[in-house]
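Late entry, written up from scratch paper. The run itself happened at the end of the previous shift, but nothing got recorded in the book at the time, so transcribing now.
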Amino acid sequence: MAHRPLSSSILYLLLSILSLLPSCTLIGIGAQALPPATIVPQYKGFAGQTVGMMVWADRGMRIEWEFIQLDLANAIQSKLDAAANPPARPGKKKGPRTKVKELQGTKFPIIPASIIRFQQDHPEIDGQPITEIAPRLGVSRLIYVEIEEFDTRPDGAVELFRGDANVTLRVVEVAPDGTGKVAYEENDVRATFPPKSPKEGRPSIGDRRIYVGLIDALGDAIAKRFIPYPEEE
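Output as recorded:
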């Protein structure tokens, strides 16, 4: 008597089991096998450009958090720079990771501290349109962030902690003739830390830990406007 090969027997058994499952179950199995959808960037004008970061915060916010402008600008730039110039793969398969095509040839020639110094040396720019300021910075694209809200505790809380931030985001394109225009704008870009934290907050975390985590979460939320990333479940 001829024997069916083992692999064929296993395949026949699997097909028999699948034929007994309802169609909705099969769809669910198929969906779980598919990779998550990719969210495309909302602005794609950085390839081959020089990019700078400028963060604005009001005086009261700067008094409470002295380095908030610098910390947020560094967070955004480091995340975009990592996507534009990914590190080499560890182990045997050495070589650069796949670069984000939207950031091919993107350069970050000015460190955020230099732009902060420019803001400090020229307080008069607070009353000027960002389209007039950007051409003075020596970059072809400027990411400009206005911090509208930045809190490490819910309203009225004394011992509970939760970070909430809200910013307005703009990208200014600087033409070769030195004129600037706002090419992308988004209001109400938000971040929360810790993720999925209850609105009333959590105890025993501390303002400093919330500050550091919220800066990173906000930098990530802004960077995701410019690079593709998998859709969260």
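The longest helix spans residues 68-84.
(Scratch paper discarded after transcription.)
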